[in-house]
Amino acid sequence: MSGTQELPPDDGTPSFDYRDEPRANGHAREPAQPLPDRPNPFAWLEDHEMTDEEAQRIAEPTWVERGLFVESHVVAIVAKPNGGKTTIVFHLACRWPQLGYQVVYVHADTNPADAKRMREIARESGVRYLTPDLKVGKAMPDVVVELEGLAASDADLRGWVFIFDTLKKMANVIHKGALRDLLALMRKLSSRGMTVILLAHTNKYKNAEGEYQYEGTGDLLSDVDELIYFEPRPNPADGSITVSTRKEKCRAEIVPMTWDIAADRSVRLREEYVDVAEEARAVKQREEDSPVIEAITECLAGGPKKQTEVIEYCRTLKVAEKRTRRVLMAYSGNLWKARRLFQKNAWSYELLPAQESSRS
Q1: What share of the chain is helix, strand, coil (3-state, %, to 5)?
Q2: What is the distance, to the nearest Å, from the Cα of residue 71 to the centroid of all Cα atoms in its chain?
Q3: How far apart (Å, rounded) are the C-alpha atoms in residues 316 and 298?
Q4: Cα–Cα distance between 285 and 324 in angstroms, integer?
Q5: Of 253, 274, 295, at which residue does a domain stop?
Q6: Burial of 265 (0-12, 13-18, 19+ CB in 10 A)
Q7: What is the reported pLDDT for 280?
Q8: Alpha helices for 64-165 (secondary structure H)
Q9: Beta-ladder partners of 235
Q10: Are 244 and 260 in contact (CB under 8 A)?
Q11: Do 184 and 289 belong to one domain?
Q12: Please, which residues bridge with residue 232 across strands?
């Protein structure tokens, strides 16, 4: 006898199935219903993926102002008070409606006389010019509330350019939470297509490198697409101001630019860039070096001198050797001429003709 158990022959009697067991109320169990489709818990990923259109806009940005402002970016323009930022940006903004943009200039850092003048120019150019702080019962925080509602809506903001002058009127820039929240709002608006331009001030004093820095917490630099300084240089001869850009942060190919602002506030873009910041550093350095320059010039007034002779002469005037060497090198070819001698590492210096004539 094998160990395999044989099945009974099929006599046509239905086999028992526990699923056919009658319910307590005498009715047969209903067939099992298919489970409803559950929502995909990862469907939200698609909302945060970059679309082909968005990728194309990054690869080939659309310029509101070529070389300076990109569509849908958040840009901070930073300058010290009376540094030309309002005059230049307002001048540029008045051209953009002719390019098809809806332009809104929110001005909360002005006086009634300037506001009246700018209002007329804005109306002629098609710019919406808002002065919340000059309206009874209104202020810049009311504009921020309206922007929050706009960010929460489904409005298409492509083609809209908002300029806010100035940032510190919208939030306490030295309060990290306040500035962070405001910049998050600006980012929401830009993600919907709005181009946001924030005009901001520098601190009163320069840093160790001799440069002015933006006023506020580090969130400003972190959360904008571009941060660009406007460096001004007054021209006392005609009352004009020369203003050049200095890039701090860029996510687009920003081009260095220089403008001249005339006494009547007309603006002209120069063909060539002028490094105003570097010029300012050079002027400051020249002022600091002037005592050493004067000492070296006195030493060379009697004719060419070896470097060792110049160093010894300046030492009698309490000028350190290291400083004398640096100034000799820095102004060679400008104030005096250097000539290498036959001895190793030996040099001689003599005043250039222009310097000799200026002393006579």
Answers
A1: 40, 20, 40
A2: 14
A3: 13
A4: 14
A5: 274
A6: middle
A7: 85
A8: 85-93, 112-125, 140-152
A9: 240
A10: no
A11: no
A12: 243
CB 51 within 8 A of CB 193: no
Torsional sign, CA 146, 148, 149, 155: positive
Place of tokens 């002209």: 268
Distance CA 262, CA 242 (A): 9
Rounded-to-integer distance, Cα 170 and Cα 164, Å: 8
Domain range for 234 = 53-274
Q: Spell out the long-range contacts of 79-83 with Cβ–Cβ below 8 A and sequence spacing 24 or more.
A: 79/199, 79/201, 79/202, 79/229, 79/230, 79/231, 79/232, 79/243, 80/201, 80/202, 80/204, 80/212, 80/232, 81/201, 82/232, 83/202, 83/230, 83/231, 83/232, 83/243
Q: Can you tell me the distance from the alpha carbon of 336 to that of 320, in angstroms, rounded to the nearest whole number?
A: 20
Residues with pLDDT less than 70, the chain: 1-32, 34-35, 57-59, 355-360
H or E element in which residue 321 lies: helix 321-330
pTM higher than 0.90 for the full model?
no
Domain count, the chain: 2
Sign of torsion, CA 183 185 191 192? negative
Which residues make Cβ contacts (< 8 Å) with residue 353, sequence separation at least 6?
none
Place of tokens 């310097």: 355
Pair of tokens at residue 268: 């002209």
Q: Is residue 38 part of a domain?
A: no
Residues 287 and 262 occupy one common structural domain: no
DSSP lists the bridge partners of residue 338 as: 349
- Single-letter amino acid, residue 194: M
In this structure, is residue 14 part of a structural domain? no
Instruction: List the helix and strand counts (H, then E) for the chain.
Output: 10, 14
Which CATH number do you get for residue 349? 1.10.10.10
Q: Which pLDDT does position 321 carry in this prediction? A: 96
Among 274, 308, 328, where does a domain finish?
A: 274
Residue 329 sits at φ, ψ, to 5 deg, of -70, -40
Beta pairing class for 240-249 and 258-261: antiparallel
- The whole-number pLDDT of residue 1 equals 47
Q: Are strands 160-165 and 195-201 parallel, antiparallel or unpaired?
A: parallel
Place of tokens 């203003």: 243
